[in-house]
Amino acid sequence: MSTEKGRQMSKVWFITGASKGFGREFTIGALEHGDKVVATARDTATLADLDDRYGDAILPLTLDVTDRAQAFETIAAAKAKFGRIDVVVNNAGYGLFGTVEEITADQLRDQLETNLFGVLNVTQAALPILREQGSGHIIQISTIGGVLAFPNLGGYHASKWALEGLSESLAQEVAGFGIKVTLIEPGGFDTDWSNVSATFAEPNPAYDGVRKAMSERRSGNASPKPVGFGKAIVELVEAAEPPLRVFFGETPTKFAPVVYQQRLKTWADWAALSLEAEGK
Fold first, then answer.
1. Which of 1, 13, 108, 125 has the most CB atoms lying inside 10 A of its own CB?
2. Are 142 and 118 within one domain?
């Protein structure tokens, strides 16, 4: 953007997990829109091509979101470089596969360290800056698995359901400071989330039937590539009144209404027992 008005309208983004998958699409989308991006990853060499392509518009920084001190240092570096931070995208995360009986306590702790406490670290580091500005947009990358659950993903769901609750409270707490919060809830997409980036528990043969049923359920359903993510998140950020929650992809729009209808029916069916618990 060449005009002064254009420069004032451009935004500064801080994106975690920017090297691949959703994070890379978000980064490219913001850069193509004419914004500045602080793109963080554990290995910034994975961002070299974007650095070459976009020059001063991108600032690659090393960040392991589980390192709280590093999260604060990286946010400070972003502010020092660009003078402000307008959009924080907490995207870094990974999947944990295994039934509740199979996953280890350490595997679950590690999952929470990244998917929940990593978000907390970055969010708490950014909030003083956003409050001082009187503006900002925090985007938490959740999942359809943050509002409903499937077998073999209990640990992952635990991290995302926790993120959903944390973020809904956060949205109410910071609204008075001019800060917006949005949970993006994607369906299944063609990334390496369920492959090299994932952690897998030691399988217990007792649950082979569960895994087989899940595999058969997914069979023949090719996951789309997240090619529209960049454009979609820019549109979300540019909205005057962005939603607290938004689905990315068609799959969540099919699954979620059915699940919520079932929940409403169950609550209604057991309403008498609910009143009985109050002694009525």
1. 13
2. yes
d(CA 222, CA 239): 31
Where in the sequence is the domain holding 85, given as residue range(s)?
4-249
Six-digit token pair at 110?
A: 């590690």
Rg (C-alpha) for the chain, rounded Å, is 20
User: Could you give the C-alpha distances from 21 to 48, 161, 162, 218, in angstroms and in order?
Assistant: 16, 21, 22, 20
Give the percent of the chain with pLDDT over 90: 81
pLDDT in tens, 191-232: 666 567 789 999 999 999 999 998 887 766 667 777 788 999
Contact 41, 60 (CB under 8 A): yes
pTM check: above 0.85: yes
Residue 132 belongs to domain with CATH number: 3.40.50.720
Known catalytic residues? 142, 156, 160
Angstrom distance (rounded) from CA 243 to CA 240: 10
Q: How far apart are CA 99 and CA 248, in angstroms?
A: 26
Q: List the Cα angle 177/17/108 in 5-degree steps.
A: 95
Q: In which band, very low, low, confident or very high, does the pLDDT at 181 lie, cut at 50, 70 and 90?
A: very high
Instruction: Confirm if 185 and 229 have CB atoms less than 8 A apart.
Output: no
Token output for 273: 């027992």
Q: pLDDT tens digits, residue range 59-99?
A: 999 999 999 999 999 999 999 999 999 999 999 999 999 99
* Phi-psi label, residue 24: left if phi above 0, alpha if psi -120 to 50, beta otherwise: alpha
Q: Do residues 94 and 210 both lie within one domain? A: yes
